[in-house]
Design brief:
The chain has four helices and 18 strands. The protein is α+β, with helices and mostly antiparallel strands.
């Protein structure tokens, strides 16, 4: 089976062109291929298929075999793959994932896609739809005690659930593995588990953030989590509408008007690593 390794800001996935390849057990393949010791290694696998309601479909799996609803870094890499491999000659395309369609504008240099701007859709703030169990209809700047520490969290869905915590210290100095795991698995608050972001506002246009993703653990970047973090920061009056988020793997630019009926836009790179063959 042929595969391609790509990453967006260090958020690395194994991409398989399922217009040409057939995988019988996708969950098992995700577990095997994602393993950094015995497989190829990655934050998961993304299968590229022909779209039903869009130009293409991306099917994302986490390393534990669970299905992911959306990946902002992954969708940019899918856009790069289909353009660079001549599955399309369009620079504005649509990609669906678990029924949700996103629209992407591709930036091309010297005949190759180098970055993309994605319409990530409207943020979901309704607690029942995220889902998160809280006192009111929304969880905005809500106090929560996890692991013996009190946090203020704002919860947002960008196609998958996110809990954003703003902290005083630099995220680089924060014990992410400890607190992130406690948030992710706290089904008393998050019935479907959660992606946990821990962020510090640098100024009105810059945020630094680390993320602990459900089914994966820490990743170097998370596109939907970056969008959720900016939404949370705007809702709490901490930043302007155009923000650069500094992640361990690189920077993403996020724009949101603050209007809940308008989309969040994410811009960032998509990088090819290598292509190979593996028996599975």
């Amino acid at each position: 089976m042929k595969f391609t390794k790509m990453h967006g800001c260090g958020n690395d996935y194994i991409y398989i062109d399922c217009t040409k390849e057939n995988i019988k057990d996708e969950k098992a393949a995700a577990k095997f291929l994602s393993d950094r010791h015995f497989g190829i290694g990655g934050d998961g696998i993304i299968l590229i298929k022909k779209g039903t309601n869009a130009d293409f479909e991306m099917v994302m799996y986490n390393p534990d075999g669970s299905r992911g609803a959306m990946c902002g870094n992954g969708i940019r890499c899918v856009a790069k793959y289909v353009y660079d491999n001549k599955l399309t000659d369009k620079t504005s395309i649509s990609i669906e994932s678990m029924g949700a369609v996103k629209y992407i504008d591709i930036t091309v240099e010297n005949g190759k896609a180098v970055s993309a701007r994605v319409d990530m859709g409207k943020p979901v703030l309704d607690a029942k739809l995220i889902p998160v169990i809280c006192a009111g209809e929304r969880a905005i700047n809500e106090k929560v005690n996890v692991g013996g520490r009190e946090f203020t969290m704002t919860c947002v869905s960008m196609g998958n659930p996110h809990a954003v915590m703003f902290i005083d210290e630099s995220p680089k100095d924060f014990d992410l593995n400890y607190y992130g795991a406690l948030f992710e698995s706290n089904t008393g608050i998050f019935p479907d588990r959660v992606n946990a972001e821990f962020a510090r506002v640098i100024d009105r246009k810059n945020i630094e953030m680390r993320v602990y993703e459900r089914g994966t653990g820490e990743t170097l970047a998370c596109g939907t989590g970056t969008c959720a973090t900016v939404v949370a920061a705007v809702l709490n009056g901490l930043v302007d509408n155009d923000v650069t988020v500094h992640l361990l793997g690189g920077d993403l630019d996020i724009s949101w008007s603050g209007n809940e009926e308008e989309s969040v836009f994410m811009s960032g790179p998509a990088t090819y690593v290598f292509t190979g063959d593996i028996d599975i």
